[in-house]
């Protein structure tokens, strides 16, 4: 067997296949999908963080120009709430009580932006005008947005029947053993800080185009997502309580995901129900302000952490207390996000004892959910800030303190105190490389120069480990087409990462075909029965290796067909530039001819699936050098140095992007 090394296989800096259409304005985002006779939805939202309300009348709104439908909570009682997938197991063995997001609020709102009514009209402007005509009496209530204030005894309760604003209590580790370590420690360092709330602010705000087929009693839903199968299954099972095969979900180009777009939102089923009632396509598009209040936020934690150390600065135990804001309702994967941080709490350090306490908290704010790493960046920030504080308090150089406490190469595979199994790493190696690249030895001179100019120069570093991909698989389905091109079907969803390019490079490596002869299809539940979607950096660790396996299988089948046609051993066939060729000869057969020659068309198909039982753990060192003007507070990033250990780099250009 021989496969000629291709120009744009794995490791090559191939330019993104996706970009030609995008830079020409030929992308297909949700707003680019339109249907004849479509109408437009608009959500009337609460201006109050907490209030009760009475809708006196919707008659004027319903009679307004162009209006086709006004829905309130009473109109959607047969539909389910927005589901939360991750209840939390508490120390007593019970799971927390769930308070879910209703499609439309029934008499009470709990955050600014909470949904009250859904209006459908010929234009978005007409729907907005009609919303102003809905007669509502509001009665504002005391609200609480601050985590600490929400836990006080006199705090207004979002859900009075629960008796407090506490969502759940989660504990991890051995509290008694950790307490002993702290009592006997030579040094104890403690820090407290706020990990602030964030909005994802992706380039393309959310939108949906919902269609109903009355004859088939089925929906077609076009929306930006991070996984059409998860969206379909959630809509079918938890909202409409119907066979999931009756819902087709399509995602075209998607302008940013970041975890936020993985979730189901109330506007999707509201548009679907409106389409079903009207028998017409219904489109809803968020504006930027709606995105800020209606889409799941990220993080928002109040953190206290402590480290117990011996006289040499060796870490003996870690103690963490996190109060995590969940917002007004429990959303998607929101309750589990701080737990994902807990599993990575010890970071890159050999810490044998730890105890972590997490309290989920209800507040009158937008619900919080998975965003940009979902708990793991929070863990990295926590442990690295704590390590820097330890260095300051012990007087041990921050680099030396890290070096003393790193998990050593000979300790791998390493079981962390939180139960994660790190496979292999060399933390000191990339830290030292980063320090050299950042010229840390020359920093003192640069800082002195800054002082002579009236500036303050600072240098900070972070050594991190991330949990990606997690246990699971993402099968890949390849087919050699009649024209000699190749189609890949896979259940991930690109949000701008360059999947079409990266996946194609795996195929090029095995099959020797031009990148532009490969079509990558994802984002349509009609193409595949199931798919895991994109999240947690799983597409290449799961999908990429499955594409490679499928390509290997298909290449063997193609060489076997060529062997029969060229009357040569399969091992003497090479695949290159769209042809199968007998090595060292001019005997060739094109891929199109191969496809035509196949006696069994199943020979033109291949499925690859690689399943992993643990996460992958990329890691690295980041060093930032800044300069501050103390007169104005203006801060300038002078240099930023990164050394990451990612393993195989599929495409350096994508990595730079």
For this entry, give a set of tags.
single chain, 657 residues, alpha+beta, Aldehyde Oxidoreductase, domain 4, Aldehyde Oxidoreductase, domain 3, 17 helices, 26% helix, 27% strand
Side-by-side strand order of the widest sheet: 4-6-2-13-10-11-12
| Strand tally | 28
How would you sum up the global shape?
globular
CATH architecture of the domain at 30-143 and 205-294: Alpha-Beta Complex
CATH T-level topology of the domain at 30-143 and 205-294: Aldehyde Oxidoreductase, domain 3
Q: Based on helices, strands and strand pairing, what is the structural class?
A: alpha+beta
What does this 3D model show about the protein?
- The chain is an alpha+beta fold and 657 residues long.
- Among the domains are: 165 residues, Aldehyde oxidase/xanthine dehydrogenase, molybdopterin binding domain (Aldehyde Oxidoreductase, domain 4, 2-Layer Sandwich), CATH 3.30.365; 204 residues, Aldehyde oxidase/xanthine dehydrogenase, a/b hammerhead (Aldehyde Oxidoreductase, domain 3, Alpha-Beta Complex).
- 26% of the residues lie in helices and 27% in strands.
- It has 17 helices and 28 strands.
- Strand 15, helix 9 and strand 16 form a beta-alpha-beta unit.
- Helix 14 packs parallel to helix 15 and helix 15 crosses helix 16.
- The chain is globular, with a radius of gyration of 28 Å.
- The relative contact order is 0.13.
- The mean pLDDT is 96.
